UniProtKB/TrEMBL annotation:
Name of the protein this chain belongs to: Flavin-containing monooxygenase
Keywords attached to this entry: Monooxygenase, Oxidoreductase
EC number of the protein: 1.14.13.-
GO molecular function list: monooxygenase activity
Keyword Oxidoreductase among UniProt keywords: yes
InterPro entries: FAD-bind_Monooxygenase_sf, FAD/NAD-bd_sf
Organism (species): Actinomadura sediminis
Pfam families in UniProt: Pyr_redox_3
Database matches in Gene3D superfamilies: FAD/NAD(P)-binding domain (3.50.50.60)
Lineage top rank: taxon: Bacteria
């Protein structure tokens, strides 16, 4: 069966895109979801303490405000409930095909259709939208003996809630955004926690607080208050952008504040030295927490900085010796630079996307890829942020993609395909601008590829991205009329 639009993924990108298409009168939309429930990363990450590090008023769609968040920084269950609510309210739930994983999508140029193969059968689409995101494929480290551990072991994004950690020895590998939320939660109940750190992160204060019922009532009933709160949060976060992409030396001021706070939080000089990063703040993701450093000072928590040599049947061996464990948890992040993997995507002339991206993922505005007509990416290359809400970026992309679909419909076009020189010019601009950013300040991070290029992040203000994606420029595309050929 042929559909107007097929969307892959039912996280914020997929749900929001379907809603915006519906608002534009485009209702023949199907969402393909490999899991049995919607939610994307907020469905998958249910580890203890899972929460967002962006304030709740900005981590929601502008067209569907939520005034009853319980906290300034929303916990995972509330975010997932919000997505479910949006899907129900706007009729998107009926458009989702659960348990349907895409294995291949191939563009049929003669028919001007995407032929999509899934684990549940075949279907066709005039337009294909990938809403898979950048944080959906857990990455496990290449450590010798990883399969030899005899106790329970799992990735933080696949948390095994059937494993009782009370009174047990836990080895947690990784000190990223998930780990700093997990550590304070489980440290209170485990017998021992060995936390294996390769590189210390910058962890700053999290200005979190509950929203009491009276404040929720004001946000809900007093006109303009919610909008002002959202605008204030946006302005605060956006002001940090200069330190990321324009004047990285500004991060020095935040580093001074970090060192003072670290000194106040951690009294042990040796532990404090182990927690002091030796790279420019912002080069890796800046983390927010009020209870991570206090948790590390507990007598049952041990920070291990010796390099890991191998996993053994009974624990983790480092250059400093053996660390016995009953449970092993990998908080080791995600495969972030492959984007659409492991799907096979084939465009015009039989060219595979992996071949087009052999030198790194590339897409005009992070959305359209030359040689792959009527294919649009959400949260694609060059659209991740270090300072603001990705929901804002997604909404910019929703408008752009909806505009492209509208052009196809109004002008009776079979397909549109971004011109190679347009894509090339955008990528050259991104790489030139990236050289002055803090992300290329010399540290290893999930933003960087093996060749040291950064293809994930947007090196600019989010309002500049919104302006750039205001509407598709017909001059940027090759097109074929629907009546030709």
């Amino acid at each position: 069966m042929t559909h107007s639009v097929v969307i892959i993924g039912s996280g914020f990108g997929g749900i929001g895109m379907a809603i915006r298409l519906g608002m534009a009168g485009i209702r023949d939309v199907v969402i393909l979801e490999k899991d049995r429930e919607l939610g994307g990363t907020w469905r998958d990450n249910t580890y203890p303490g899972a929460a967002c590090d962006v304030p709740s008023h900005l981590y929601s769609f502008s067209f569907e405000p939520k005034t009853d968040w319980t906290r300034r920084f929303p916990p995972q269950p509330e975010i997932l409930d919000y997505l479910r609510h949006c899907a129900r309210k706007y009729g998107v739930l009926d458009q989702i095909r659960f348990g349907t994983e895409v294995t291949e999508a191939r563009f049929d140029e003669d028919a001007a259709l995407w032929r999509i193969s899934t684990t549940a059968g075949e279907l066709d689409a005039r337009v294909l939208v990938s809403a898979c995101g950048q944080l959906n494929r857990p990455a496990l480290p290449e450590i010798a003996g990883r399969g030899s551990f005899t106790g329970p072991s799992f990735h933080s994004a696949r948390w095994d809630h059937g494993v009782d950690l009370r009174g047990r020895r836990v080895a947690l590998i990784g000190t990223g955004a998930s780990a700093i939320q997990i550590v304070p939660e489980i440290a209170r109940e485990v017998a021992e926690l060995h936390l294996f750190q390769r590189t210390p992160p910058y962890v700053i204060e999290k200005p979190d607080r509950p929203y009491p019922p009276w404040k929720q009532s004001v946000l809900r009933n007093v006109p303009g208050v919610y909008g002002l709160s959202r605008a204030r949060v946006y302005a605060q976060l956006e002001s940090r952008a200069l330190g990321f992409f324009k004047y990285p030396k500004l991060m020095g001021l935040m580093e001074d504040r970090f060192r003072r706070d670290l000194r106040d939080a951690v009294g042990d000089p040796a532990l404090r030295r182990a927690l002091q990063p030796d790279y420019r703040m912002g080069c890796k993701r800046i983390l927010v927490s009020n209870d991570y450093y206090p948790a590390l000072t507990r007598p049952n928590v041990h920070l291990v900085t010796d390099p890991i040599e191998r996993i053994t049947p009974s624990g983790v061996r480092t250059s400093g010796g053996e660390h016995p464990a009953d449970v092993l948890v990998y908080a080791t992040g995600f495969s972030t630079t492959d984007f659409l993997a492991p799907m096979k995507i084939v465009g015009r002339d039989g060219r595979e996307l992996t071949e087009a991206w052999r030198d790194g993922a590339r897409a005009h505005l992070g959305i359209t890829v030359s040689g792959f007509p009527n294919l649009f990416l959400l949260y694609g290359p060059y659209t991740n942020l270090g300072h603001n809400s990705i929901i804002y970026m997604l909404e910019s992309q929703f408008r752009y993609v909806t505009g492209c679909v509208d052009v196809l419909r109004r002008r009776d076009l079979a397909w549109i395909d971004v011109r190679p020189h347009v894509e090339d010019a955008f990528v050259r601009e991104m790489r030139a601008r990236m050289r002055t950013t803090v992300w290329e300040a010399g540290c290893d991070s999930w933003y960087r590829r093996a060749d040291d290029t950064v293809v994930n992040n947007w090196p600019g203000f989010t309002f500049a991205y919104r302006r750039a994606t205001r509407r598709p420029d017909p001059r940027h595309f090759r097109a074929r009329p629907a009546t030709s050929g």
